[in-house]
Structures are given as C-alpha cells and as structure tokens.
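Re: [ENG-882] Designed sequences occasionally contain unexpected residues at chain ends

Forwarding the minimal case from QA. Structure tokens:
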C-alpha cells in the first residue's frame, strides 16, 4: 500500500523534509536493518515513505546505510529517521 506520492530519488529536496506526526523509529528498526541488508547484499530496493512540508512522499531506492539519526541513500541523500513513516520491501 502506497502511503505517499511516489517520487524519484533525484527529486528529494532535503530542505522540505520534516518530522513525522509520530515517531516511528522504534517500530521501524527491524525494517531499517532489513532494507540496509537488501541494499548492500542483494542490491534490492525498498519503498521509503517520509514526511515533507507537502505531505508524505515515497521513494523506491536502495538503502546504503543507517546511522543513529539518518537513512543514507545513493548520491549522499540523508533522510532523518524522525521523518520516516514506513518502509516496505
């Protein structure tokens, strides 16, 4: 189920990303690990839904790494964990 408008990774404007209405970090920890493993070991993509000033956006991309505060995508794009709404793969 698509929660947000599907956009291309290249069109992510990090200045428009805001925190989600609810903090989903704890419930998404396993999915974050799974998405990173999919990206690194299998070169597979995940659907990442995050909050922006213009509502939820979803991007289908490879997760390179997960840090304490960010999810890192290709081309140096960092999405704050606090903005995440859902991850699906």
């Amino acid at each position: 189920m698509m929660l947000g408008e599907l956009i291309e990774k290249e069109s992510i404007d990090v200045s428009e990303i805001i925190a989600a209405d609810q903090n989903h970090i704890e419930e998404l920890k396993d999915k974050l690990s799974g998405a990173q493993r999919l990206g690194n070991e299998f070169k597979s993509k995940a659907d990442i839904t995050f909050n922006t000033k213009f509502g939820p956006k979803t991007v289908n991309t490879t997760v390179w790494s997960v840090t304490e505060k960010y999810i890192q995508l290709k081309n140096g794009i960092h999405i704050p964990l606090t903005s995440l709404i859902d991850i699906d793969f």
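QA comment: On inspection the terminal residues look reasonable. The mean pLDDT is 94. Proposing we downgrade this to a documentation issue.
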